[in-house]
Design goal:
This protein is an all-alpha fold and 316 residues long. The protein has helices at 6-12, 17-33, 40-61, 65-88, 92-102, 107-126, 134-148, 152-205, 210-224, 229-245, 252-269, 276-295, 298-313. The chain has 13 helices and no strands. The relative contact order is 0.05.
Length: 316
């Protein structure tokens, strides 16, 4: 090894030019080992050693033997350190080869993603979304083929794509669900406003105090200006509290039945079980019931509502 016994070499040499020859041999040997994948530190050390070797060459040209010996020792110490670094450090290619050799079968991860994907599909169906899952399904097929072929690194890349797509799809479904929640809340608020209008009209007809009527009208205004689902719920709770405070809840059960009949009518209107004429008559009857509730004629409203509900039950 050219890096061993450097001090003895210097002391034994009678021809100082041999020092330059030894240094150049070391330089050539290291130059053949250093490549673009070597560390920056190793490359920098090699440059420093080369500079010391140039100083050695200049010293010999000036017949400065003592300086030449000093630069020779410095050069060889640096080159020895470079050699040690090249020996100890694995190249990135070797590290990648090791990683590839130790890559585990990702079947378990793929199975978990498949279960998660199935859940997403179920939720998407629940909200009647038009999301296309074909790209995701294709990736699952590809990943399974890669695993069967023991191409685990390729399978991991495919699984990474699957994860990203499932995240994106989940976000889309959440957004869609939020929109539906807001739409349902607003529909419910609108129906509740109709009930509240009937309650206010009934309160006026009964001659209730202006204070009660003002509270109800103020609550109605707050509810009508709200679009956030959670705030709609809060406003309705406040209205219920007002109704309970002033004992205005005796027709709540009737109002609830009215809402149920409205749902039944909507369902039947999208089918052929009820003729157009019968459907129109049922809607007119429902409007009559609402007027009776607003006027405080609860007995008549209850009787008519019972008859209408019985009629509609026959067509469900």
């Amino acid at each position: 090894m050219i890096f061993g016994g450097m001090t003895h070499t210097v002391q034994a040499q009678t021809d100082p030019s041999i020092l330059l020859k030894i240094a150049k041999q070391a330089q050539n040997q290291l130059e053949n080992q250093i490549n673009q994948d070597s560390s920056d530190k190793t490359k920098q050390l090699f440059r420093e050693g080369t500079q010391q070797m140039k100083a050695l060459e200049e010293s010999l040209a000036n017949n400065d033997v003592e300086s030449a010996k000093k630069y020779f020792l410095s050069t060889m110490r640096i080159f020895k350190e470079v050699s040690q670094q090249l020996t100890n450090n694995k190249s990135p290619q070797a590290e990648m080869a090791t990683l590839k050799a130790t890559t585990e079968d990702p079947s378990a991860d793929l199975l978990r993603l498949q279960d998660y994907s199935d859940n997403i599909k179920t939720i998407a169906k629940k909200y009647n979304t038009s999301i296309d899952f074909s790209d995701l399904d294709d990736l699952f097929v590809i990943a399974k083929k890669q695993i069967r072929a023991k191409q685990f690194d390729d399978a991991l890349q495919t699984i990474s794509q699957i994860k990203q797509i499932t995240i994106d799809l989940n976000n889309k479904i959440r957004e869609y669900a939020s929109q539906q929640e807001q739409s349902r809340a607003q529909d419910y608020a609108q129906k509740y406003l109709e009930q509240l209008d009937r309650l206010i009209e009934n309160a006026k007809n009964q001659g209730l105090s202006e204070n009660i009527i003002q509270k109800l009208e103020s609550a109605r205004e707050s509810l009508s200006s709200t679009t956030d689902p959670h705030e709609i719920i809060n406003q309705i709770k406040k209205i219920i509290s007002i109704k309970e405070q002033f004992e205005l809840t005796k027709n709540d059960r009737l109002e609830s039945r009215v809402m149920q009949v409205e749902k039944t009518l909507l369902k039947l209107s999208n089918s052929d079980k009820l003729t157009k004429s019968d459907l129109e008559n049922a809607k007119k009857t429902l409007q009559t019931i609402k007027r009776q509730l607003a006027q405080g004629d609860f007995d008549s409203a209850n009787e008519l509502l019972r008859s209408l509900a019985t009629l509609l039950d026959q067509f469900q």
